[in-house]
UniProtKB/TrEMBL annotation:
Transmembrane segments: 7-28
Name of the protein described by the UniProt record: Dolichyl-diphosphooligosaccharide--protein glycosyltransferase subunit 4
Bias (Low complexity) ranges: 49-66
Taxonomic lineage: Eukaryota, Fungi, Dikarya, Ascomycota, Pezizomycotina
Principal cellular location given in the protein's record: endoplasmic reticulum
GO (cellular component) term, any one: oligosaccharyltransferase complex
Any single GO BP term: protein N-linked glycosylation via asparagine
InterPro entries: Oligosaccaryltransferase, OST4, Ost4p_sf
Chain residue ranges for the region called Disordered: 36-75
Membrane topology: Single-pass type III membrane protein
Compartments where found: Endoplasmic reticulum membrane
Domain of life: Eukaryota
Amino acid sequence: MLTDNDLHRLAVFLGSCAMILIVLYHFLEVNAKDDEDDTVPATKNSKNGSTDAASRTTSTAAAGGSSVCGGGKDR
C-alpha cells in the first residue's frame, strides 16, 4: 500500500513534470515560425486585374474610410 509520503512524492513529481511540459509547450509555440508560403502566391497571382490587400486598404483610407483614433478634431 502507498503511504502518505509516497503519495506526496508522486504528486510533487507529476506536478513538476506537468509544469515543465507547459513551459516547454509555450516556449515552442512562441518561437515557432509562421508558414508564409501560402499567403505569398495569393498576392502575386492577380491575373484578372484584382488588387492585393495592401492597395485595397490604402484606397479605402483615401476614400474616406473611418479611422480608429479620429484625431480628436471633432470634440
